[in-house]
Design brief:
251 residues; mainly beta; 12 strands; globular
Length: 251
């Protein structure tokens, strides 16, 4: 009930504020490829999606929502995945803080899984070239008719080597029943053009998963192309005034 009351209060404040604020609309579209390897499997995926941002003045409230879909192949077959997300937040020159939620689904021949996430996130602009980030909340998972709940938490930092190149490190932890997953990610993003704000991001990830006392380790790579619209400027400006780069748990 406390979380619901907070969402309602933020919504009322946003509506009242938007009546006298300058509204701007921005967005991001992207597509990418990832590969993940375990001791006995190789997983490849193609995905694409987008995010839309409605800002009510700066500093001020904002709404962001979007979705993504992808196709996953491994040594045993293939699956389709999609997710949708929504966020409400406050942002100013010192950072951003808000509430997030998302819903995702993974469908394969022998597997039907859905997950729902809700939580809080924050992004602190420590300096022009440095951001510190956190997120956490609850998650529900339904797999082939069985339902379980848990929680997640994560921390991260982004360092801008210069205004159009960033290096980001993050670590996340997820626990649902007897399932425990720890991830670490390292990503580099470069803004190719300010006039046509296209960027390319390359990342490495490492995951340790404990499924009912059975451990699985994996590592992988991603490459991602992003195009931002309704916005201009350097990469650090786009990250801090445009579509939020750091929100809730990615499903």
């Amino acid at each position: 009930m406390k979380l619901q009351a907070l969402v309602i209060a933020l919504g009322i404040g946003l509506i009242a504020h938007s009546a006298k604020a300058a509204t701007t609309i921005q967005g991001l579209a992207g597509a990418g490829y990832s590969t993940v390897s375990t001791e006995d499997d190789n997983i490849h995926s193609l995905y694409g999606g987008g995010e839309a941002l409605v800002s009510f003045d700066d500093p001020g409230f904002g709404l962001q929502f979007g979705g993504a879909g992808g196709h996953v192949d491994d040594d045993d077959g293939s699956a389709n995945q999609w997710n949708g997300d929504g966020h409400i937040f406050w942002r100013d020159g010192k950072g951003a803080i808000g509430l997030s939620s998302s819903y995702g689904s993974l469908n394969a021949l022998s597997l039907d899984a859905t997950a729902f996430q809700y939580g809080i996130f924050g992004d602190w602009f420590v300096r022009r070239d440095l951001s510190l980030r956190f997120r956490g909340g609850g998650i529900g998972l339904k797999v082939s008719g069985d339902y379980a709940t848990g929680w997640y938490g994560g921390v991260g930092t982004a360092y801008y080597v210069y205004s159009d190149l960033s290096l980001a490190i993050e670590s996340n932890y997820l626990k649902i029943g007897d399932i425990k997953i720890t991830t670490g990610n390292l990503d580099a993003e470069y803004l190719v053009s300010r006039e046509y704000p296209v960027s390319v991001a390359v990342g490495y990830n490492y995951t340790t998963a404990d499924f009912y006392d059975n451990g699985i380790n994996s590592h992988g790579w991603t490459i991602h192309l992003k195009y931002r619209f309704g916005a201009s400027g350097s990469l650090v400006d786009l990250d801090r005034t445009g579509v939020l780069p750091w929100t809730g748990l990615a499903l």
